[in-house]
Amino acid sequence: MSNAFSNLGLGVGLRPQHFSYLLEHRPAVDWFEIISENFIDSGGRPRYVLEQLAETYPIVMHGVSLSIGSTDPLDFEYLRKLKSLATAVDARWISDHLCWTGVAGRNTHDLLPLPFDEATLKHVTERVRIVQDFLERPLTLENPSSYVAFRQSTLTEWEFLSRLAEATDCRLLLDVNNVYVSSVNHDFDPREFIRNVPHERVVQFHLAGHTRMSDHLVDTHDGPVIDPVWALYREAVQLTGGAATLLEWDANIPEFPVVHAEVLKARSAELGARSTDGTSESSPGSSALRAPSSALPHPLHHVTAEVQ
Ligand SMILES: [Fe+2]
Q: Which of these, 60, 65, 83, lies nearest to 134 by C-alpha position?
């Protein structure tokens, strides 16, 4: 793997709520992940803050609009903007999700699951190659959380990801919380997912909180990471040798030190110091224990309104 994908340490998603704090305090966070769409068209304060931070912190770009699985044509104007921003902030890598977000020019503003079959694999493989050729760098793809699945799928999600990575040489962003959420929603063993992705291609982890509904989990990014997800993360670190780790907190966002402290718990997870039973969701403050509100946060709430 290229040095461009070195382990950056423990990072935090850059959110406007923290701009003033970050400029004033310059906290000792290892790196920031930005939502690409929040900056590709913006000037003004967001771009100013980003450029200030990019002078001293590594920046990784994370997008939500690539729609790599759609049958719509790829948006080369969007890709051009991504490439330009990556150059401007010296982005270490560019990621998006293994999903589709719309079709026939309509954007659902959601990260929708794909059928995991041979025809879809061929389609996505061709598009990843085109995107990588255009960006002149490997793409990094994340496993999204999902709530429905296609009956026509003949592969597991981890088999699909493995074959896609092998065919395209793309890298993987393993969202450990998404693995957990999907495993509950689709009744599979999350450890099987973690154990069967190609570990040498995992360049980044995501951690986040979620919300338990009556019979499924929702990927709300609105609270701390629960113990079973930490247990999965610890196993993933052991299997991969560790990779840049990012905490996503996108609704009910607390002060920056609280968010930063949550990702710093990964240090003890990396050292194997946390509980290993991985079966309880009873940790204090667990998002899974909070009563779900009628208006659940949406994982894409962190995309500013003007780009939706
Ligand atoms: Fe994620």
A: 83
Q: Give the Å distance between the CA of 179 and the centre of ligand 1.
A: 10
149-177 pLDDT tens trace: 889 999 999 999 999 999 999 999 999 99
Dist. CA 142 → ligand 1 center (Å)? 7
Task: Give the model confidence (pLDDT) of 209-227 as tens digits.
Answer: 888 887 898 888 888 999 9
246 CA → ligand 1 middle, Å? 9
Q: How far is the CA of 176 from the centre of ligand 1 (A)?
A: 8
- How many Cα atoms sit within 13 Å of 175 on the Cβ side? 27
19 CA from centroid of ligand 1 (Å): 21
Q: What is the mean pLDDT of residues 87-111?
A: 91
Vertex 201 angle, CA 174 and 35, to 5°: 45
Q: How many CB atoms lie within 10 A of CB 84?
A: 11
